[in-house]
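Weekly puzzle thread! Below is a chain. First person to post its structure in token form gets bragging rights.
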Amino acid sequence: MNFLFRISLLFTCICLITLFARDAARAEENIRIGIMAAMTGPYAEYGLEAKRGVELALHEFEGRAGGKNVELIFEVGDETSTLIAARAQDLISQHGADIIVGPLSGGEGLALKEYAKTMPEITFLNGASAARDLTFLDPAANFFRFTTDAAQWMAGLGRYSYFDKGYRRVVTLAENYSFPYTQVMGFLVEFCSLGGRVAEQIWLPLSDKPYAAVTAKLHTLQADAIFIALDGSNTANFLEQYWKDGGQLPIIGGSVTFDPVLLSSNSLYHTYLPGSISASPLADDDQGRDWQSFVADYRKHHPSAPPVPSIFTVDYYVNTKAALLALEEVDGELGNGQAEFRRALTELQFDTPAGRVSLDENRQAIANNYVIKVALGDDDRLRNEVAYVATQVDQTLGMGRERYLALGAPGPNTPSCP
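Winning reply:
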């Protein structure tokens, strides 16, 4: 009997040891985060910037979250919205991704949202897509965005233009597609609500832009300033033509109008651009501790990268950090369809390099935005300075959902501002 008892006890111990070992192994299982930001194709440089942001976030957590190792899986392929579902599916089925962070661009974001609806057991966090309707219309319950959209990126600019600059009538100039539509809308919603008006809206084709004809038309319009929602290279081409033809109206920029390359490339800008204003979800000249600390960490870990992190770096950093913070909250548990993990994301608030962020009912960021002024420094170089901070900007720009929805989708005639 004593022998049988000993055998039974030994068997019980072996089972317990096996169970403990299995639980310990399970506790050490990697959590895999799939990153949708390809390093090849037309967006390769942006993908590299995104990669830097993701790696900075994980480095803060020393490679672990919720007591588990976190493995980053970077996709292979270029950024093609028509293939977004296949790319995400590959990360999930072939590489075992538990969480997806991405993508880079607006069109991709809208396509990935629709795919997310077919994968309810996987949690998706935005990369850098700024499309408004990624979260505003028909959102996916498993898609979270801890960064702001392209309309929110304009918050404060209409107010500053009206009150601080004294502008009452503006011309808007932008390319004829979704991102500029949303930027123009974000600016005009605020500017027009204060009493500002639009003298003319000019929409440019994506190629063969008729800058000479545009500048000739501008000379016939009564306006106080021009709002330009063009990228840096197109801005340069337009401004050189405009100033050559004698144009003198002050310039208001969108979020990608006054890039560092443009500011340092032509002496004409030293004459005409000081005092110009724009808006952005981050500010290179932000003297806040969180931003300065982030830039220092970025330079330390990526000494060969550009001296200041881009919006792609910051957005991927913020969304990845949100995932890691939520994993800490739930001790790395992703069971039950990731329900507790998503609850933690929904309730999450934290400080980013650009200020505190929280989510609304559609899992969309409420965060700060910056009005930027171009200034000529003592070193005879142009730089961007913080002129005003719009705090805790929600997705409806303070209008409330029903009023904002009634304006219609961003487009060439939205909002109406005669």
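Puzzle host: Confirmed. Bonus trivia for everyone else. The chain has a mean pLDDT of 91.
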